Amino acid sequence: MSQHLEAEAPVYDGPPIEPDGPYGSKLSLFVANVPGPIRSVTAEAGGMTLLLGKVLWSAIRHPRGYWNDVLDEMHFTIKRSWLSISIALFGFLLALSVPSMQFVNLAGVGELYGPLLLVQSTRTFTVWVATLLVAGVIGAALTAELGSRKVREELDAMEVMGIDPIRTLVLPRMVSITLITTLLAIPAEIITVLSSQFGAWFVGGIPRVDFYSFLWSTMSTVELVTLMFNCFLAGLLIGAVCCYKGLAAQGGAMGLGKAVNQAVVIAFLALFIMQLGYNAVILGFFPGLGAFK
To answer: Which of 202, 228, 195, 200 is nearest to 90 (CA)?
Structure first.
């Protein structure tokens, strides 16, 4: 009787069902039949989302005990990377402002540079350049640090000792990179204004008085608030991607280097997609932001 039942049991001939990432569970038969590239992308996106949810739940449920680590991490990170980020931010934004001013100057509408292109730069290029620098400098270092601990099996040793690596290692670093990205919005905006004013004066000959009069008549409090909230969401995204890829690193030094490269590339693509959706939602709620004043 048992042999007859075993003969009638369905046999699964699809791809092997394996967990993807440190927080993945066994995939269902439906997900296992999805093509490999789509399945791997979906599994990684789900793992990053699950990791972000665990970190947020831990931070909100127990909001004490990790702020000293957050401050130490922020101090160490800012001390190590503020100069490179500042120079790169000014250089990128200056390289964007000068060609933009040349274009509008050739079109004969150089006086519109302040009220139009500067606002668009604030909404897009400022956040884009600042977050890319954070992902490329701080995010890569974060992935390498967590990945090296994973490769050396330090995370497994922490779990054996009853220490939660998410609470101890991931939470302070994710909060730190989110706060750094949010606070970077203010100096990034200042650098955007200074570089744009230099481009407007050097190329278009626009006096500083006219430039800043255009700026204050166009820029609003909503623009600055949305800029900081945009950087806040970008920091969460960078932290989730880089922490997940660091925890998922395997295969020794070669696997660690591959995880760092993948983390930076995925963060770049995810930031680009997030910017498109975020700006569309903001302009939907505040359509007056795109109006000429």
So the answer is: 195
Task: Compute, in degrees rounded to 10, the torsion defined by CA atoms 95, 112, 271, 66.
Answer: 90
Residues 39 and 14: their CA atoms lie apart, in Å, by 13
- Please report which confidence band the pLDDT of residue 7 belongs to, taking 50, 70 and 90 as the band edges: very low
Residues 6 or more apart in contact with residue 130 via CB below 8 angstroms: 89, 181, 184, 185, 188, 231
- Residue 127 is encoded by which pair of tokens? 């956040």
Residue position matching structure tokens 């503020």: 82
Task: Say if CB 209 and CB 104 are below 8 A apart.
Answer: no
Can you give the pTM of this predicted structure?
Answer: 0.81
C-beta of residue 140 within 8 angstroms of C-beta of residue 242: yes
* Locus of tokens 């998922």: 248
Half-sphere exposure of 222 (CA within 13 A, CB side): 10
Tens of pLDDT, residues 100-135 = 777 877 777 766 776 677 777 777 888 888 888 888
At a CB cut-off of 8 Å and minimum separation 6, what does 91 contact?
none
Q: How many Å apart are CA 93 and CA 99, to the nearest integer? A: 10
